[in-house]
Amino acid sequence: MTSKKLLASIKDSSTSIKDSSTSIKDSFTSIKDSFTSIKDSFTSKKDSSTSIKDSFTSIKDSFTSIKDSFTSIKDSSTSIKDSFTSIKDSFTSIKDSFTSIKDSSTSIKDSSPIPDLMTTQTLGLEQNLYDYLLSVSLREPEILTQLRQETAQYPIGRMQIAPEQGQFLALLVQLLGAKKTLDIGVFTGYSSLVVALALPRDGKIVACDISDEFTAIARRYWQQAGVADKIQLHIAPALETLDRLLATKEAETFDFAFIDADKSNYDGYYERSLQLVRPGGLIAIDNVLWSGKVADPEVQDNRTKKIRAFNQKLHQDQRVSLSLVAIADGLTLALKK
Ligand SMILES: C[S@@+](CC[C@H](N)C(=O)[O-])C[C@H]1O[C@@H](n2cnc3c(N)ncnc32)[C@H](O)[C@@H]1O
């Protein structure tokens, strides 16, 4: 071989080796790339798996969240339903409370001893005629005038009887020759004092009231007038006091009874008084015209209805002689036969 050919052959081999080296290098690069690729693939697969797992976790969480939302919606619905039930119950309760308040008001109004229009002067008279009546007939002792003036200062002062009515009661007591009387409803003491002043020295009044406060004023005036020893005050429901009198054999021992306490018990007071007064004894019942409300068909409250029924009963009651006198707020006189 010529040196020229040898050199050419070496050069070709070198080129070939260089090419192979390049090829090997390229293969290694390729293998390296493959490994990188494989590694990337593995990384990618791992990431994908993680991602899929995460997605499943996310989906699961979403389902849990949806389930929780449904549970929450269900709970909210139950809560809304409960709230509506509670609101409904509250309205029922409010309605019941209003009904109860209305009933209580009616009951308080009916049991209050002070009617809306209770009067301390005779009904239906023009003021100038009423003033004239007083000016030519009233002989009111100074102590009674003082009691009337003091009582008039209280808002409930109109529960007091009228002065011309007091004088009329005193006349009746004198007419009967009464010694023993009943005063049912004392208040500040006008009716008991006017009767006590008309009774003889040994006269006696059994006085009934439930109020210590009102009757403290009455006691003061009885003392001042010097008639306290004639008056036995019983602080208790008058029905109980009257029943005790009947139980202690005081039936038919009274000459006169004046009924002027709570109107709802008028019939009970009348029936007991009828047993306690003697034949020929007199029962006087106040407020039977009830400020005119008894004659007004529009008025249908319990007390007015009770007074109407009471008046009708007495109209038919043959155990007594009867007169309804249009003095003050109306005074029925029932004389026991
Ligand atoms: C209209 S005032 C009496 C007025 C009195 N007669 C006068 O001349 O001034 C009615 C009185 O009855 C009393 N009263 C109310 N309910 C009673 C009851 N169940 N028993 C006894 N007194 C009662 C009240 O305290 C009140 O003092």
TrEMBL record:
Instruction: List the PANTHER family.
Output: CAFFEOYL-COA O-METHYLTRANSFERASE 3-RELATED, O-METHYLTRANSFERASE-RELATED
Q: Which UniProt keywords apply?
A: Methyltransferase, S-adenosyl-L-methionine, Transferase
Instruction: Give an example GO biological process.
Output: methylation
Name of this chain's protein: Methyltransferase domain-containing protein
List the residue ranges of the region (Disordered).
1-24
One short Pfam family name for this protein? Methyltransf_3
List the GO molecular function terms.
Answer: O-methyltransferase activity; S-adenosylmethionine-dependent methyltransferase activity
Question: Per the record, where are the segments of Low complexity compositional bias?
Answer: 9-24
Listed InterPro entries: Cation-dep_OMT, SAM-dependent_MTases_sf, SAM_O-MeTrfase
